[in-house]
């Protein structure tokens, strides 16, 4: 008999293959062994799961040898389990929801010192031009507003965070700002004898305060402290709208029934409605150099815009920078989308084809052909 040479053994695959002609043992036996090993592993897993569920406590796991009995016991276990399996997550959910609810009950709600009525009238929302995304301050309005501050508010309110130099180019020329600074005297550094002298103001000096200290301010204002206005627009809910409403909101007479304590003035926008500051703006109080009519609301608008500048002197620059950032990042974003599509194009347009091996070949290998037997 000729020596069988099927199949050609690959040098890198040491497994012996079974020959469909001479039935030499090998790969087939390996496959059967693997299948039986898998089956027993599956049964062991089922038995272990049943034991864990405690549905078959009296039966040792080894007795559930047939797959029929083990599947029967597993279905019995699943029908018995819902209450116990659901109790733990349901309980945990109840505890979690209860904890959040109790925490919200204790700490989550706003606590208001005053009723909404006492809180003051909510200011009207005005269409401030400078608050729009693409708008700057109206700088002639800033100049007028600074005039109103200087001629009206500065006698009571300080603006201590604003140096003269920041007025240059925003609402004053250099010469105007220098002349304004020189109107006031500031302390010098101590000289050789340790004496502090007075010198005229410079551009680097800050706007002077009307009072020496808070006590003097209170003493001059019936016990009320006129707050510093540098950050007032940011410090009050409603910002520009609130201050505009406050300045223009003094009625001729307090409404009937309103209780106005001695020394206070009625203003519906001020929390508590009794404010120590009386109405300060009246038509034609100041004379604008650009010919704008100085109505009460015009002055209020100008001074509020000026105070907004004082609180956010960087606003114009910030908005310009924001538009630059948007422009640059949108170009970069478009570029990165293009690069991503470019890099992924070969993968996205690739077609993967799976050619399954021909099954009939395997069958003919396992079944010896009759004609070869002869
Ligand atoms: C006669 C002094 C005086 C003048 C002038 C004056 N104020 Fe006042 N202002 C006060 C006092 C006093 C308070 C404190 C009020 C209080 O706490 O009841 C005050 C408070 C304020 C407040 C804070 C309100 C709040 O919500 O706490 C703002 C804003 C304000 N003033 C703006 C101005 C502006 C703008 C001007 C100029 C147009 C001006 N004031 C002129 C005395 C003055």
UniProtKB/TrEMBL annotation:
Transmembrane segments: none annotated. Gene3D superfamilies: Cytochrome c-like domain, Cytochrome c1, transmembrane anchor, C-terminal. Residues 140-293 form the Cytochrome c domain. One of its GO terms (biological process) is mitochondrial electron transport, ubiquinol to cytochrome c. It is found in: Mitochondrion inner membrane. Heme c binds at residues 153, 156-157, 277. One of its GO terms (cellular component) is mitochondrial inner membrane. Binds 1 heme c group covalently per subunit. Residues 182-195 have a biased composition (Acidic residues). Its EC number is 7.1.1.8. GO terms for molecular function: heme binding; metal ion binding; quinol-cytochrome-c reductase activity. InterPro entries: Cyt_c-like_dom, Cyt_c-like_dom_sf, Cyt_c1, Cyt_c1_TM_anchor_C. The keyword ATP-binding does not apply. Keywords: Electron transport, Heme, Iron, Membrane, Metal-binding, Mitochondrion, Mitochondrion inner membrane, Respiratory chain, Translocase, Transmembrane, Transmembrane helix, Transport. Its cofactor is heme c. It comes from the Eukaryota. Residues 44-83, 182-213 are annotated as: Disordered. It catalyses: a quinol + 2 Fe(III)-[cytochrome c](out) = a quinone + 2 Fe(II)-[cytochrome c](out) + 2 H(+)(out). Belongs to the cytochrome c family. This is quinol--cytochrome-c reductase. It comes from Lophiostoma macrostomum CBS 122681.
């Amino acid at each position: 008999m000729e020596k069988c040479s099927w199949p050609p053994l690959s040098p890198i695959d040491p497994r012996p293959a079974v020959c469909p002609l001479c039935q030499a043992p090998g790969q087939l036996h390996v496959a059967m062994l693997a299948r039986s090993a898998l089956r027993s592993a599956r049964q062991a897993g089922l038995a272990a799961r049943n034991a864990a569920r405690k549905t078959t406590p009296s039966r040792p796991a080894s007795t559930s040898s047939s797959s029929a009995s083990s599947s029967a016991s597993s279905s019995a276990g699943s029908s018995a389990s819902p209450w116990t399996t659901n109790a733990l997550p349901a309980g945990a959910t109840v505890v979690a929801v209860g904890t959040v609810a109790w925490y919200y009950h204790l700490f989550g709600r706003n606590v208001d010192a005053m009723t909404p009525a006492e809180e003051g009238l909510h200011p009207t929302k005005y269409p401030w031009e400078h608050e729009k995304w693409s708008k700057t301050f109206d700088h002639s309005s800033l100049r007028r507003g600074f005039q109103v501050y200087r001629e009206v508010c500065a006698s009571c309110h300080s603006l201590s965070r604003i140096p003269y130099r920041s007025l240059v180019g925003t609402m004053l020329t250099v010469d105007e700002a220098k002349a304004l600074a020189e109107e006031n005297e500031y302390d010098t550094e101590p000289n050789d004898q340790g004496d502090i002298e007075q010198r005229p103001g410079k551009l680097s000096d800050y706007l002077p305060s009307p009072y020496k200290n808070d006590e003097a301010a209170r003493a001059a204002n019936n016990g009320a402290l006129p707050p510093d206005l540098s950050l007032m627009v940011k410090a009050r809910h409603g910002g520009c709208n609130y201050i505009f409403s406050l300045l223009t909101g003094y009625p001729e007479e307090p409404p009937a029934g309103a209780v106005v304590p001695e020394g206070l003035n009625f203003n519906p926008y001020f929390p508590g409605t009794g404010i120590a500051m009386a109405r300060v703006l009246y038509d034609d109080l100041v004379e604008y150099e650009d010919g704008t009519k100085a109505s009460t609301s015009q002055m209020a608008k100008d001074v509020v815009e000026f105070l907004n500048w004082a609180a956010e002197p960087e606003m114009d620059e910030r908005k310009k920078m924001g538009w630059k950032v948007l422009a640059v990042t949108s170009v970069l974003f478009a570029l990165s989308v293009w690069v991503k599509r470019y890099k992924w194009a070969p993968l996205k347009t690739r077609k993967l084809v799976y050619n399954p091996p021909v099954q009939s070949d395997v069958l003919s290998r396992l079944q010896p052909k009759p004609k070869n037997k002869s």
